[in-house]
Amino acid sequence: MFRQLAIIIGCLAVGEFVIWLTHIPVPSSIIGMLLLTLLLKIGWVKMEWVETISNFLVKNMGFFFVPPGVALMLYFDLIKKEFFPILISVIVSTALVLVVTGWVHQIMRKYWKIKMPHMKIRKKKKHRQED
Amino acid sequence: MHEYLSNDYFLLTLTFGIYFISKLIRRYLRLAIFNPILVSIAFLIVFLKINDIDYETYQASGSKIDFWLKPAVVALGVPLYKQLNSIKQQIMPILMSQLVGCLTGISSVVVIAKILGASKPVILSLASKSVTTPIAMEVTESVGGIPSLTATIVVCVGIFGAVAGFRILMLGKVGMTDSQGISLGTASHAVGTSAAMERSHECGAYASLGLTINGIFTAILTPYVLKAMGMI
């Protein structure tokens, strides 16, 4: 457990260092996440070194955003004043993202179908079922 | 008694306890509106208001919990690594849909909110609404919005996606399981992903892919999109 925590916090520290050094407007946690993926990929960090704590953190991510959410009580007035712009923009935009992302993925998937080996396998399986 | 109610460890226990109970409620009443995050936030706000405890007092203990937001985002590197092969196989459809989805999400919410007359700090806080809270809050902070306003809106977006997501996708004629999954993850992050996971594991896997990649894209692109739109 100690090693697991050290690796996760260490990746975050490197992320913070990169931000401090370059001032790029990217969250340090994203850099830490990509670093962890890279370290796993090149094998410097083994899966079992981070798996338990990562599963715990990812599974319970929701809990960590309860306290920031409570800060809503500070913005009741602001939200009351701009309730409709917030509500409508959020609903319309979310629906747009859902449909647009789905469409692009569907169209691109059909277009790239021939070049994707696992798609061919799936198609064959379907044919077999039909037979 | 009132003094004890603002004790650090009491407030921490209360936060842990109410989240645990909200999760139990969610398990028995399988309604998306009983989202544990939403129920916990609502309960805590009511509790603090009734007992006249101000947010700063609560945040002194709450900050011990939200400290773990950043490590949790780092931990997303593990599922990302596990999905690397799946990503490689359809790298172009995934990346293109994520890029378009990310730009659609940021620009549409900014344009609509601006037309409807939202103020600048609110618009900046809305820009990253589609991605998971820790990322969204950091993005909002880096562009000068109100991070905790973003946190609340992100949770609401997630619940909206989980409740209405599949219906909207069917209306928009998005029928393929993996396309539906990736859309849910892109538009409504972890809460949408859990809804996709309930439908099928394939759907859920693609949703977590959407959640991760859109998180990265939004984190990197939001400041530039907002700059291009003349917001910052």
How are the SSEs ordered, and which strands pair?
The complex is a heterodimer of chains A (131) and B (232).
Chain A: H1 2-22, H2 28-41, H3 47-59, H4 61-64, H5 66-70, H6 76-81, H7 83-112, H8 117-130
Chain B: H1 2-5, H2 8-28, H3 36-50, H4 55-66, H5 69-75, H6 77-82, H7 84-89, H8 91-115, H9 120-126, H10 133-143, H11 147-171, H12 177-199, H13 201-228
Keywords, please?
heterodimer; A: mainly alpha; disordered C terminus; B: 232 residues; mainly alpha
Please provide a written account of the structure.
- The complex is a heterodimer of chains A (131) and B (232).
- The model of chain A is unreliable at 119-131 (pLDDT under 50).
- In chain A, α1 (2-22) packs across α2 and α1 packs across α3 (47-59).
- In chain A, 82% of the residues lie in helices and 0% in strands.
- Chain A is extended.
- With 131 residues, chain A is mostly helical.
- Chain A starts with a helix and ends with a helix.
- By secondary structure, chain B is mostly helical.
- Chain B is 82% helix and 0% strand.
- Chain B has 13 helices and no strands.
- The longest helix of chain B has 28 residues, at 201-228.
- Chain B is globular.
- In chain B, 53% of the residues are buried.
- The mean pLDDT of chain B is 89.
- The chains are: A mainly alpha (131), B mainly alpha (232).
- Chains A and B meet through α1, α2, α3, α4 and α5 of A and α3, α4, α5, α6 and α8 of B.
Q: Radius of gyration of chain B from the CA trace?
A: 18 Å
Strand percentage of chain A, roughly? under 5%
Stretches of chain B where pLDDT falls below 50 for ≥5 residues?
none
Which oligomeric state applies?
heterodimer
Say how many strands of chain B there are: 0
> Compute the gyration radius of chain A: what is it?
22 Å
What distance lies between the first and last C-alpha atoms of chain A, to the nearest angstrom? 52 Å
